[in-house]
Every structure is written in structure tokens, then in C-alpha cells.
Design a protein that fits this description.
alpha/beta; 11 helices; 12% strand
């Protein structure tokens, strides 16, 4: 059973009709996610347009407000059936999961098409595909089963010439080549990812100046590191932003280190 609050842009799980893995298999054989989204593309677009314009009009030319869709593909199933069942599906019943993915991809594309009709210039597609240490399953699985669906889901945005930025929790750098081929114009990497400086250097040497990147000081550094460790990591990110056009720095607020972070930002932000 799915529900949506009056302000929500997507459905969320309120109750699951299965308790065991066997019940899940039976459920998926008859499940059609298209039945959970009966609105037309035009109806969804009107909701997104009102939501987007209310923020963009408020901020005017201070910043560019992007569209976003949170439940692109895998995240829907993470929320819908839970991690344990999802892992078992991928390994034990891959054909059934492929069918379910393809069905939900039609719903996801419907929302992306709706966003393409709103007037936005940039779009964020969110999907949690990695843990803090790396991809959740083999990179080959993503290439064969997930990324071809991304191409179809993202097509309405790409056809309009809008910039598409991919965002995921975790360390998904091993998957960036496949994401770029699928159509991603940029990547937002969240603070939970355990990315080394060599990880970022390798990616930026390949894609810096050609793709958009939004980077942050690692969460473990902000929470447990010293002020100097926080400052050093931020200076490194800012050096990448000065070296490559299209690199941004974002950060979640962590009281322990934020004063040192902000001071370092102010001191180093001039080009």
C-alpha cells in the first residue's frame, strides 16, 4: 500500500503485502507499478511546474533551481521491498527482477517526461546504487541490467537538451563510465562516500571540464577528524574546482567541524 502526502512528488510505502520471500515472489508475478500512478504526464507536469516555479520565482536569479526525481529505479525497490529481499531477488530470481525493473521504468520515465515539460534547465536523477565502500553488486550487473533502463528513463530530458545530474549515496566512482554512457551530464557525490584523493583525482582527470561534479568533505572527516583534516580536505576539493570548470562543493552541516570548514572556504574561495 502506497501513500502520498499533499506536498509529496512521489509515492512512498505505507504497508507491504508480503512478509516472506516466497510471498514477495508471488506478489511480483502479478504486480504492475503502473497501477500505482494513474495520473497522466500532463497532470504530473502541472504539479511539478507549480512546485518548481514557486521556488525559482522566490530565488529569482540568485540560483538555478533544478527538477528532481528520487525514486529513479533501484531506490524504489529499496523502499518497496527492503534491502534483504532486493539482494535475494538480484541473485536468486534475476529474470523476475528484470521484469519488475522494466515495468517500474515506465513509471519513472513518466515522471521524467513530466519534468521535461515544466521549463527546467537542469534535472537531478537520484538512485542509491552504492554503499560507502563501493557498488552494492558487481559493476557488470549495472551495465547489463540497470544502465540500459536509465537511457530510456532519461530520454525525455536528454531530448530537450537539459543537463542531467546523477546523485547516489555511497562510493559509485567505479560506475561513472557506465553512467556517462547512459546519459549523465554530471555527478553529485554525497559525504558518506569513502573517496580517497586518488579516487577523485582519477575521475576528474578523465571527466573534469566535460562533466559537472558536486563534491564534499567526507562525513567521517567532518564528524571525527580534526579541524586541520577538515580544512585540508576542503582545500583539496577547492583546488579541483579551480582546476576544472564545472566542479562545485556542497556540504551537510556538522557542528563539530563547520567553523573550521567555513573559515577555510572563505580564505580559499577567490580564484
Amino acid at each position: 500500500r502506497l501513500a502520498r502526502t499533499s506536498a509529496a512528488t512521489y509515492l512512498w510505502v505505507a504497508d507491504r503485502p508480503f512478509k516472506t520471500y516466497g510471498e514477495l515472489i508471488g506478489h511480483l508475478k502479478h504486480y504492475d507499478p503502473c497501477e500505482d500512478e494513474e495520473r497522466s504526464v500532463e497532470e504530473i507536469a502541472e504539479q511539478y511546474r507549480r512546485s518548481w516555479m514557486s521556488i525559482q520565482d522566490l530565488l529569482d536569479d540568485i540560483t538555478l533551481v533544478a527538477g528532481e526525481f528520487y525514486l529513479t529505479l533501484l531506490t524504489f525497490f529499496i523502499a518497496r521491498i527492503g534491502w534483504n529481499f532486493l539482494a535475494r531477488l538480484i541473485y536468486k530470481n534475476p529474470e523476475l527482477f528484470d521484469e519488475a525493473l522494466a515495468k517500474y521504468a515506465e513509471v519513472s520515465r513518466k515522471h521524467v517526461e513530466a519534468w521535461s515539460k515544466t521549463g527546467i534547465k537542469a534535472f537531478f536523477s537520484h538512485d542509491d546504487i552504492a554503499t560507502e565502500l563501493g557498488p552494492m553488486v558487481s559493476p557488470e550487473w549495472y551495465l547489463d541490467h540497470l544502465f540500459p533502463l536509465y537511457r530510456k528513463v532519461w530520454q525525455p530530458i536528454k531530448d530537450k537538451g537539459m543537463k542531467l545530474i546523477f546523485i547516489s549515496d555511497g562510493k559509485y566512482t567505479p560506475l561513472i563510465d557506465g553512467l556517462a554512457r547512459a546519459g549523465a551530464d554530471g555527478f553529485k557525490m554525497n559525504p558518506d562516500a569513502r573517496l580517497s584523493r586518488s579516487d577523485l583525482t582519477e575521475v576528474l582527470e578523465k571527466y573534469g571540464g566535460r562533466k559537472v561534479f558536486s563534491l564534499s568533505v567526507r562525513q567521517e572527516t567532518m564528524v571525527s577528524g580534526s579541524e586541520e583534516e577538515t580544512a585540508s580536505e576542503l582545500r583539496f576539493l577547492m583546488s579541483l574546482a579551480k582546476q576544472y570548470n564545472g566542479v562545485f562543493v556542497h556540504q551537510e552541516f556538522e557542528p563539530a567541524s563547520f567553523e573550521a570548514y567555513y573559515k577555510t572556504w572563505v580564505e580559499n574561495r577567490p580564484r
